[in-house]
């Protein structure tokens, strides 16, 4: 009898070879793993704990042993810690198993000591030595976090790249391919089917998952990358339970994982079939949602919870994106943009601003109402069961723009906190170029106006990198250059190098002007327009 762990998709059904879902989960400066994953990985030898690892590593060559070696002070680059620019002809000389260098994205690594630790095996790694292996590396596993794994093996820049800023090169995302179609993969266990989609690092993808009618085998899955949607129409081999058991979208890894429960627990020969198509940025669609909850949150705001009709749609927004809520009223269509608050932020028992992998069949909003506000005053009166329309997620926020920044300042005013809120978790969880300091200045009129005060306090208590300071206009606090100047002390190494701003138009303009006066460049500022 087959056990779950023995069930693997037959390779023949795939056009491309099956590759594992993989991203190295490593802390930035030193190679470290959270202890639970470290234990898990120590036994699997895979950078991700992925059980489908192809190559059995020799005893003593697990990921943990590699981390230990990296932290041992051994000279893994062979240059005694010096950074040495390397010409192509020099690189070509290091093409032996006992003397192996490899260039990836203009940076040369000495991979000699990594050979036996490489989960794909020595022969595979040897395919890239003595040359620029960027293309090959990306073809096999673009998601692997090589700067971190090979940090101690860095020899120097490839000479034609010497003129570039090497440090920036370390953290710069790979150039975006003009047309990147997410790569699909799948694995199964007796009772589960997991679909994987790989976009690219820092792609910050969005996801829309739709059950077709009430079908248990037909699913439409759309991956949003910037303004383009890649559509995967699935006809599964057999019925699955709706909604999925878990959905994980990695803004940083670019990996999407959808775990479906099979209605009948048995091995499948294949996942089924799929057709791929593309929708361009002009594509507009409205999704019908119903109100499940609409109740006061504080003296001038309310909470609105929307769920897709028959729970047939699951929506994960790219970080920093928003939706338009559309509401018919007196023959007109009222329309206003709102950013949902992170999943579980309002209703989890925990004080944490956090989310889990439970599928997002609901979207929750915190909305400030204005007595004379055409949209908010109408939305506030919605009764459970009423339907509204939601647009597809929109936005121009680029998570990758923050990748090279470790000290980030967030300026939010009033309800402008919602897009800022969506950044907290992805930034604090970022593995590459780990955040050092994330400071939120939250501007409100009075104490009573502050949203989610306890959650911010809890986050501050649990993560020393995060601080939240409330600034009240009733106490004379307001956005100004004087207020911001002390935060930009260029003598300090950890001065803020990126600022995200969201508030009413006047606040945004004042913040942007002050930041310009403080010599921040436009690429160091993102203003979410309210
Ligand atoms: C450029 C030449 C390379 C080739 C041809 C290559 C090939 C492979 C192959 C075939 C696998 C198994 C993946 C699969 O089963 O589909 C693999 C896994 C892996 N490789 Fe490489 N590799 C190369 C370079 C590197 C480098 C430079 C690193 C260092 C960071 C690396 C790190 C990894 C990791 C961490 C895995 C395991 C991924 C997982 O946990 O699922 N590889 N490689």
What compounds sit in this structure? protoporphyrin IX containing FE
What proportion strand? Answer: 25-35%
Structural shape: globular
CATH topology of the largest domain: Flavocytochrome B2, Chain A, domain 1
Tally the structural domains. Answer: 4
Percentage of helical residues?
Answer: 10-25%
* Number of DSSP-assigned strands: 24
**The CATH H-level homologous superfamily of the largest domain:** Cytochrome b5-like heme/steroid binding domain
Low-confidence stretches: 1-53, 161-178, 350-356
SS-based structural class? alpha+beta
Radius of gyration: 25 Å
Specify the biggest β-sheet.
Answer: 6 strands, antiparallel
Question: Which class of the largest domain in CATH terms?
Answer: Alpha Beta
Second CATH tier, the architecture of the largest domain: Roll
* Discrete helix count: 12
Terminal residue distance: 59 Å
Oligomer: single chain
Largest sheet, spatial ordering of strands: 17-16-19-13-14-18
Mean pLDDT across residues? 83
Task: Characterize the structure shown.
The chain folds into four domains: 18-171, Cytochrome b5-like heme/steroid binding domain (Flavocytochrome B2, Chain A, domain 1); 183-279, Immunoglobulin-like (Sandwich); 287-390, Translation factors (Elongation Factor Tu (Ef-tu), domain 3, Beta Barrel), CATH 2.40.30.10; 399-529, Nucleotide-binding domain of ferredoxin-NADP reductase (FNR) module (Rossmann fold, 3-Layer(aba) Sandwich). It is 17% helix and 29% strand. It is built from twelve helices and 24 strands. Helix 10 (453-462) links the parallel strand 21 (437-444) and strand 22 (466-472). The chain is globular. The protein binds protoporphyrin IX containing FE. Protoporphyrin IX containing FE is lined by residues 19-20, 22, 24, 46-48, 50, 53-54, 102, 111, 118-120, 124-125, 127-128, 133, 136-137, 140-141, 144, 146, 149-150.
